[in-house]
Design goal:
Layout (H helix, E strand, L loop, with lengths): L3 E2 L2 H4 L25 H12 L7 E4 L6 H13 L7 E6 L6 E7 L3 H24 L2 H31 L2 E6 L2 E8 L2 E2 L2 H5 L3 H58 L3 H20 L7 H7 L3 E4 L9 E4 L4 H5 L1 E2 L2 E3 L2 E3 L5 E2 L2 H4 L4 E5 H6 L3 H11 L1 E2 L4 H4 L9 E2 L2 E2 L3 E6 L1 H10 L1 H6 L2 E4 L3 E3 L2 H17 L7 H15 L4 E3 L2 H17 L7 H14 L2 H12 L9 E2 L2 E9 L4 E14 L3 E4 H4 L5 H18 L7 E7 L12 H13 L3 E2 L2 E3 L2 E2 L5 E2 L4 H15 L6 E5 L10 H8 L4 E5 L2 H9 L17 H20 L9
Parallel strand pairs: 2-18, 2-19, 4-16, 9-14, 14-18, 23-28, 25-26, 28-31, 31-32
Antiparallel strand pairs: 1-32, 3-4, 3-8, 5-6, 6-7, 10-13, 11-12, 15-17, 20-21, 22-27, 23-24, 24-26, 29-30
Length: 790
C-alpha cells in the first residue's frame, strides 16, 4: 500500500455517538457503574460467597475509579445485610488484668451504658442510707458481738483446758503460745531444766495434748470466722438487694440479654465484696463509677445495614485497635475503659475496604491481618505486646469473633507482588475483581458515559453541560485512552475536567458549561505544567538544541521522543544521525556503548542489523561500519519507536542520498521491514508541530507514523486546523521503503528475482556502496592500493 496522507476527516471523532440532547439536564437515566459488567459480576460473587478465604482484591489502574466504584457497590449491597451487634468491654472483677467482652443488639449498647451510669450515680446514696441506717448497724453489731462472744468462749475453753494440763496460754498477734505452769507460776527455762526427769516427761506428754487443743481451737475459730463472714455477706447481700433490687431489676427487664444478666450478676457479687471490706460507703464512689461501666467500642445505633468501613490510613493501631495508658506517680496504668477499637472492629459483621499499597507500607499490618483472618477472631493488643517487644504487664482482652469481608484495592503490580511472594495471599483473597481501563466506543457506551457525567453533575451540584461541551469531553476521553475507538475508564480524570470546567463557567456567571469552558480547563491545566516545555522550546529557538525543520541532510533524520515528568508528558523531536566508515562492520550504537540505552532499544538496533543484512548483504558482506547517535540526548534512551528513523538515517548515510528535515519520523520495524505501531503518538506529533510552528510553518512539514497508529491519533484542534489548511501533514506507512521514498523523493526500488535493485533507486545505491566498501576491504587485505572512484 502506498504512503497515505491523512485528512482531517480521518482524524475526527464521531460526535454522532452522543445522544440527541441539548445538555445533561435532559438526561434522565443514570449510570453509576459504567463499563463495569465484568467487575460487577466478580465483586457480587465475592460478596455473596460466604466460605472461608473468599475475600476480595479489586485490581485496577490509577484514576479508573476503583475506590469509588467499590465503595458505592459495597454500600448498595450492604443494605440487604443485617446490622451487627454493638460490642463493649467491661471490667473483670476477679482479674484486674483482664477485660471481658460484652455484646448488645445493634443500638442497645450506648443506651445500656447511659442507664447503667444513672444507676451508679444513685448507688452510693442508696447504699449509704441502708448500710449507715440503724437497722443495718444493729444487726451488724449483733453479728459482731456474737462472733466476739463465741471467739472468747473458744479462747477461754482453751485456756482452762491447757491450765488443767499444767500450761498457760498466751495469744498475741504472732500466734498462740503455751508455757509450763507450777504452783500457778510460769516456769522459766532454768526452772524447767531443774525439774526431775519424771516431771519433765509429764510436761512433755501434756504439751502434745495442748498442741492438739490449740489446733482444734484455731480450726474452730477459722470456722467461726468463715461463718461470721458468710453471715456478714448474707446481711450485706440482703441489704444490697433491698437497696439496689429495683435499680438492677429495671436494667435486666429493659435489657433481657444473657451478656447483660451475667454482667449485672458480677456487679452484685463485687458489690458485696467491696461493701463488706469498706470502712465507709462514700469511699467507694470513685470505684463504682470506674468499675461499673461499659466501654462501647462498636456502636451501631446510627446504622440500618451492615457496616462498610474504608480505612485510608491502615496503620497497626488504626486497623486493630490499641490499649492506652495513663501515668500515675511514675507508674503506667490501664484498664478496660482505655481500650480503643480499630477499623476491623467497626467493620465486623460487614465489609472492610483497604488500599493495598497503604496496607503494605505500614509495618506488621499485613502479617497481623492474615493471622486475624485465619483465626476468625481478633484480640485488642498493642503492637509491642503482640510481637513480644514489650516487658510491661498489660491488659488481656477477650477475643471477638470475626465475621467480615475484607476488600483490598490496588494496582496490578501490588496484586502480582502479593500473589508471587506470599503463599497465604491466594488462600485468603480468592476473588480477583479486574477493572478495565478502557471501553469500546459505541452508541450504548457513549450514552452510559453521558449518563455517568449527568449523574455526577447532579450529585456534585455542578452546572448542566451543553452538548458542544460533551463533544469536547468525549474527545478528552478518547485522548486519555489513546484510541479513537475506545472510551477511557479513567473516570477520575474526567471528573477533574468537569470540576475545572464548572469553575471557569462559574467565573463568567454562566448557567451552563460550554465547550469554551472545557477548552479553557484543558488549556489552563496544561499551561500550569508547561514550564519545562517552555524551557526546551527556548533552547530550540536560540539554537542550543539543534533541530532542522527544512532542507535535506545526508545521514540525518528527525526522530520523535516522549518526555515524561510523572504528572505531564510531552513530545520532543531529537536529531538522529548515522555515520559510515571502513573498518569493523556492523552497527555501533553510541547510546548503548555509553550505557545510556535500555534493553528494548538495544534489541531494536539488533533488529536493524538483521533487516539491513537480509536486504542488502545477499551478494556481498556488510563491510561498512555504521555509528548511530541521538544527538544532544544525555539521558537514558529506551524503547524501539526510533528504529524506523534510525534505519532511514543509516540508509541515507550509506547511499549518500539526503533526507528531508521537514519531516519527523516515528515507528518501530521488524526484520522484514514492516513498520509497527508505537506509543505516545499524539505527543510525538504535537511535539514536532510545536517546533515547526516555533521556527515557522512552511507547508512542507509533517510526521511519518505507522499506519497502525492512525486509530491512536486524537489531536488538538490547532493541529487539525493546520492539516485542514495544508500547513502540516501526517503520513502513514506500512513498510520502510514507503518512508524511504517520501523522505528522499526517489524510488526505493524492489529486488528482482536475481537479487538486484533497479538502477537509480535508493536501494541500488546502498548495494553499490556496500560493493565498493567490500572491494576496498579486499584490496586492503591483499596489500593493494584501492582504486579511485571515477
Amino acid at each position: 500500500m502506498p504512503v497515505q496522507k491523512l485528512k482531517v476527516q480521518d482524524l475526527s471523532i464521531d460526535t454522532e455517538l452522543l445522544p440527541k440532547i441539548e445538555s445533561t439536564a435532559d438526561v434522565l437515566r443514570t449510570q453509576s457503574f459504567i463499563g463495569r459488567d465484568r467487575a460487577v459480576k466478580a465483586l457480587l460473587f465475592g460478596l455473596e460467597m460466604e466460605r472461608d478465604g473468599y475475600n476480595i482484591f479489586v485490581v485496577g489502574h490509577s484514576r479508573t475509579g476503583r475506590k469509588t466504584f467499590t465503595k458505592h457497590f459495597v454500600q448498595e449491597y450492604s443494605q440487604k445485610k443485617p446490622v451487627p451487634p454493638d460490642v463493649g468491654y467491661v471490667a473483670d472483677f476477679e482479674d484486674p488484668q483482664h477485660a471481658k467482652v460484652i455484646f448488645f443488639p445493634a443500638g442497645k449498647g450506648v443506651d445500656f451504658k447511659k442507664d447503667l451510669e444513672k444507676v451508679v450515680e444513685s448507688l452510693t446514696d442508696r447504699l449509704s442510707k441502708v448500710f449507715e441506717g440503724e437497722d443495718y448497724k444493729a444487726r451488724r453489731r449483733q453479728l459482731d458481738e456474737e462472733f466476739q462472744a463465741a471467739q472468747e468462749r473458744y479462747t477461754n475453753e482453751l485456756i482452762e483446758k491447757a491450765k488443767a494440763l499444767g500450761f498457760a496460754i498466751k495469744i498475741s498477734s504472732t500466734g498462740v503460745n503455751y508455757y509450763p505452769l507450777k504452783d500457778g507460776k510460769i516456769l522459766s527455762e532454768q526452772e524447767f531444766e531443774a525439774l526431775s526427769d519424771e516431771e519433765k516427761r509429764v510436761y512433755q506428754e501434756s504439751s502434745k495434748k495442748v498442741e492438739l487443743l490449740i489446733e482444734a481451737a484455731i480450726e474452730n475459730v477459722r470456722k467461726l470466722e468463715a461463718h461470721y463472714k458468710e453471715q456478714v455477706r448474707d446481711l450485706n447481700r440482703y441489704a444490697l438487694l433491698f437497696a439496689t433490687e429495683e435499680l438492677f431489676s429495671s436494667l435486666e427487664k429493659k435489657y433481657p440479654y444473657s451478656d447483660v444478666r451475667e454482667f449485672i450478676h458480677r456487679i452484685k457479687e463485687d458489690l458485696v465484696d467491696k461493701v463488706s471490706s469498706a470502712k465507709k460507703i462514700s469511699d467507694l464512689e470513685f470505684y463504682f463509677r470506674r468499675a461499673y461501666n461499659v466501654n462501647i467500642i462498636v456502636d451501631n445505633s446510627g446504622t440500618n445495614a451492615a457496616p462498610v468501613v474504608f480505612e485510608d490510613t491502615p496503620t497497626y493501631h488504626n486497623l486493630f485497635g490499641k490499649i492506652e495508658y495513663i501515668e500515675r506517680e511514675g507508674m503506667l496504668y490501664t484498664d478496660y475503659a482505655m481500650i480503643r477499637p480499630g477499623s476491623i472492629h467497626k467493620a465486623n459483621g460487614g465489609y472492610l475496604i483497604i488500599d493495598a499499597y497503604e496496607l503494605l507500607v505500614h509495618p506488621f499490618v499485613w502479617d497481623r491481618l492474615k493471622k486475624v483472618l485465619m483465626a476468625k477472631s481478633v484480640e485488642i493488643e498493642n503492637l509491642d505486646t503482640a510481637y513480644g517487644y514489650s516487658t510491661i504487664a498489660t491488659l488481656k482482652t477477650d477475643p471477638i469473633p470475626l465475621k467480615l469481608k475484607v476488600i483490598l484495592i490496588g494496582t496490578p503490580d501490588v496484586y502480582e507482588l502479593l500473589y508471587d511472594y506470599d503463599p497465604d495471599f491466594e488462600k485468603l483473597f480468592k476473588v480477583k475483581v479486574e477493572m478495565d481501563w478502557e471501553l469500546d466506543a459505541d452508541v450504548n457506551t457513549v450514552n452510559d458515559l453521558v449518563s455517568f457525567i449527568a449523574d455526577y453533575v447532579k450529585e456534585a451540584e455542578l452546572l448542566p453541560i451543553k452538548r458542544s461541551a460533551l463533544e469536547k469531553i468525549l474527545w478528552y476521553s478518547f485522548r486519555l485512552s489513546g484510541d479513537r475507538r475506545k472510551l477511557s475508564m479513567k473516570l477520575g480524570s474526567i471528573i477533574d475536567l468537569l470540576e475545572e470546567a464548572n469553575f471557569y463557567a462559574g467565573k463568567r456567571d454562566a448557567k451552563y458549561i460550554e465547550k469554551a469552558d472545557v477548552i479553557k480547563a484543558l488549556y489552563e491545566r496544561e499551561n500550569r505544567l508547561q514550564l519545562v516545555v517552555e524551557k526546551y522550546d527556548e533552547m530550540f529557538k536560540t539554537g542550543e538544541l539543534m533541530i532542522d525543520v527544512s532542507g535535506k541532510v545526508v545521514g540525518q533524520v528527525n526522530g520523535l521522543t516522549v518526555v515524561n515528568f510523572g504528572d505531564f508528558e510531552f513530545g520532543l523531536p531529537v536529531k538522529i544521525t548515522a555515520k559510515t566508515y571502513l573498518g569493523t562492520s556492523g552497527i555501533l550504537d553510541i547510546q548503548r556503548e555509553a550505557d545510556l540505552s535500555g534493553q528494548i532499544h538495544s534489541k531494536a538496533v539488533m533488529i536493524l542489523t538483521g533487516y539491513l543484512g537480509s536486504k542488502y548483504a545477499r551478494k556481498v558482506p556488510f563491510s561498512i561500519g555504521v555509528s548511530i547517535s541521538f544527538e544532544q540526548v544525555y539521558g537514558y534512551v529506551e524503547g524501539d519507536s526510533a528504529s524506523l528513523a534510525e534505519v532511514l538515517a543509516i540508509i541515507s548515510a550509506i547511499s549518500k542520498i539526503p533526507l528531508k528535515q521537514s519531516i519527523a519520523v516515528t515507528g518501530s520495524i521488524n526484520q522484514h521491514g514492516h513498520v509497527q505501531p508505537v506509543g505516545g503518538v499524539n505527543e510525538k506529533v504535537e511535539g514536532f508541530f510545536r517546533i515547526c510552528k516555533l521556527k515557522g510553518l512552511t507547508g512542507d512539514q509533517g510526521v511519518i507514523i505507522p499506519r497502525a497508529n492512525v486509530k491512536n491519533l486524537v489531536l488538538k484542534d490547532e493541529i487539525l486546523e493546520a492539516i485542514q489548511e495544508g500547513k502540516f501533514h501526517i503520513w502513514t506507512v506500512d513498510e520502510v521503503d514507503e518512508a524511504l521514498e517520501l523522505m528522499t523523493d526517489k524510488k526505493a526500488g524492489k529486488m528482482d528475482k536475481n537479487g538486484n535493485y533497479p538502477k537509480g533507486s535508493v536501494n541500488y545505491y546502498v548495494v553499490e556502496a556496500l560493493k565498493r566498501a567490500h572491494e576496498m576491504a579486499e584490496e586492503k587485505k591483499r596489500g593493494r592500493k584501492p582504486k579511485k572512484e571515477k
